[in-house]
Design goal:
Layout (H helix, E strand, L loop, with lengths): L1 E4 L11 H13 L6 H12 L4 E2 H9 L6 H13 L3 E7 L2 E6 L7 E5 L5 E5 L1 H14 L9 E4 L2 H7 L1
Parallel strand pairs: 5-7
Antiparallel strand pairs: 1-6, 2-4, 3-4, 5-6
Length: 159
Amino acid sequence: MNSRDVSAGRRGDGELTEEMEVFREFLRDRGYRVTKEREAIADSILRNRDHFDVDELYLSLRSRLTISKASIYRAIPLLIESGLLAEVYLENGHMHYERVYGREHHSHLRCLKCRRIFEFSAPELAAVEKRISRLEGFKSEGHKFEIWGVCAACQAEKA
């Protein structure tokens, strides 16, 4: 198992040509218009390497564009359905999301004190998912795994 702290605010500024084309093609295949607003929302999300909620995304976009929260709320399900974005966790009534396209499957450790998110990969979880699904005659489409508690840094503050 390896973990990576994703709360440090990394932002990828590489080319998003492939990801944006996946989104455009998804929209066209389903009869949706490819609008500048949808593209701006997708671009902002795909460049974000952190977990975020709609309010954070709105504030980021609003500084550059005239955009409504409603547009973001309408675009997010499209990005999820296209396989570019995933719901990660609910906190304080807000769903948090993360970019998933081109990333390996991972799980999360969430510190309840400092709110940092740590990602980790554990291939053994996929094996458990397959075994349980097979035993129950269930066709699995994936899994989410999250552990919440207090991170090592916050524990050290108590000492």
